[in-house]
Amino acid sequence: MKSLTSTVTQSSNSGATQSGSSDNASSSDSLEMNHNSPKCEDLNKVFTEEEFTLYNLPKYYDIAFSRDVSGEIAFYISCFKKYCSFEVKTILEPACGSGIFLEAFPKYGYNITGYDICPNMVEYTKERIMNDGYAGKAEVLLGDMRTVKFDQKFDAAIISINSLGYCLTDKDILNHFKAMSESLRKGALYIVEIICAYEDLKNEKKPDETWLAESNGTKIEATWCPYFYDRENKIRHINFKMKVQDNGRMVEFEEKHELRLWHYEDFKRLTQEAGFRVVAIYNQEYQLVPIDSRITGELGALYYVLLNG
Q1: Cβ proximity of 296 and 196 under 8 Å
Q2: Which of 80, 117, 132, 207 could form a disulfide with 88 if both were Cys (CB 3.0 to 4.6 A apart)?
């Protein structure tokens, strides 16, 4: 699914432009990298080149994609109360990544279980939960969202930032939704955030796809750039670059991601085959989008509220 090239270097000079906190990252500056610096042997010993990927580097992933999720949490809770006929107490999160929601939901009184396919991400999230004191209300497990099923029946589930897009085929997507349906109570909600195909790929490309983030002396420049739609096979091709200055250590890599090229009719059909029903759609401002609207990427990433059974 991904191919990459990577460079890992180390230098005593910072060379980075101050960008502020990761919650207020700027895309107007750039991070200067010293490509003549000596190799950083410690990272090379940990990962082979094939293993040196974004999802194998959870610390950097967490900094680059960190955000204030309080608004999203409030939205999810409002959906639980509006569309679910019982009180939501337990939440399931496939592809939970670095655990941003596993850290947040317990603060609102919920129990949450997440899982991720990447062992390094799971270990990072376990440590995050332990350090924050939520081990009793949050749990993270290793698992593939195409196959994982739970005996426990959860009250609700969420999956954010188009993570479901890594299920590329109809078969994988259907298997995921069937597994989720079996892991949720009847009448439970599954809130899925995805972005559909733009009618014109040019509308998806932005003048500047780059942003800066910083935390505890680690500075990151990241670029996420969609560059090709394979409409026949329904694949969206992304080029991702990351430059890191980690307290004197330099890391730089580039990789290509393949994600599902979503079409609303496909999404609706596959969810229905698995036993779900789309009951509402919301945009990024948490405003309702009519279900019978023409749904394309021009509307941005959307939240689909699915009812199980």
Answers
A1: yes
A2: 80
Domains of the chain: 1-309 (3.40.50.150)
* Distance, CA of 97 to CA of 66 (rounded, Å): 11
104/191 Cα distance (integer angstroms): 17
- What does the radius of gyration of the chain's CA atoms come to, in whole angstroms? 20
* Cα angle 68-210-158, degrees, rounded to a multiple of 5: 40
Terminal-to-terminal C-alpha distance of the chain: 32
- Convert the pLDDT of each residue in 15-67 to its tens digit: 222 222 333 344 434 454 333 322 333 344 355 556 678 999 999 999 999 99
In whole angstroms, give the CA distance from residue 115 to residue 178: 17
Among the listed residues 181, 152, 164, the one whose alpha carbon sits nearest the alpha carbon of residue 308:
181
Q: pLDDT for 189-223, tens place per residue?
A: 999 999 999 998 888 877 678 999 999 999 999 99
